[in-house]
């Protein structure tokens, strides 16, 4: 009987110590808030020294985005670099005619109609935005698949560099020949 009372008493002390510790932290936080955020004797005076910083809107206005012509980038595209980039695509696509993975086969995709294979279930989003996979359409799609064709089933986030997209398209175009 004495043992049960000892265990209950010990647990009560431990719980009380924890509650006391949390109370000290709460009071400390309240005191710090009172000192630092309610003036703390400084009043509502203006800062003695202000540093002006350009806002993001000002920076955007000063430097207009340079539009790069995709045809120029495509003319200097590297098939070898495109083959390296293809490694990311081959987890879902194949370069064999009619062999589908998660995505459709991409052999001969450049300048081919969008919904080429009858045995692949294309999303309606792709068919709605283009009829043919021209290099320009592939470029826009590879840059941001969900932005180019909202509702597409392709889960790829996109390829940011225009040179990478041109290299990949050049590689896809070369393997079809």
TrEMBL record:
Which Pfam families does the entry mention? Cytochrom_C
Which SUPFAM superfamilies does the protein's record reference? Cytochrome c (SSF46626)
Say which species the protein is native to. Yoonia rhodophyticola
Give the organism's phylogenetic lineage. Bacteria, Pseudomonadati, Pseudomonadota, Alphaproteobacteria, Rhodobacterales
Keyword Methyltransferase listed? The answer is no
* Every Cytochrome c domain range: 77-176
* Domain of life the protein comes from: Bacteria
Name of the protein: Cytochrome c family protein
Q: Which UniProt keywords apply?
A: Electron transport, Heme, Iron, Metal-binding, Transport
Q: Which PANTHER family match?
A: CYTOCHROME C
Work out whether the entry's keyword set contains DNA damage.
no
């Amino acid at each position: 009987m004495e043992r049960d009372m000892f265990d209950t008493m010990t647990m009560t002390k431990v719980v009380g110590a924890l509650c006391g510790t949390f109370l000290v932290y709460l009071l400390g936080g309240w005191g710090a808030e009172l000192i630092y955020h309610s003036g703390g004797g400084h009043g509502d005076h203006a800062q003695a020294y202000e540093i002006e910083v350009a806002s993001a809107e000002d920076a955007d206005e000063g430097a207009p985005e340079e539009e790069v012509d995709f045809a120029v980038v495509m003319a200097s595209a590297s098939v070898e670099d495109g083959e390296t980039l293809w490694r990311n695509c081959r987890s879902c696509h194949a370069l064999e005619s009619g062999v589908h993975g998660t995505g459709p086969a991409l052999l001969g995709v450049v300048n081919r109609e969008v919904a080429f294979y009858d045995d692949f279930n294309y999303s309606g989003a792709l068919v709605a935005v283009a009829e043919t996979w021209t290099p320009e359409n592939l470029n826009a799609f590879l840059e941001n698949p969900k932005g180019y064709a909202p509702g597409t089933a392709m889960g790829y986030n996109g390829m940011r560099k225009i040179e990478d997209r041109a290299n990949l398209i050049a590689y896809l175009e070369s393997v079809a020949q």
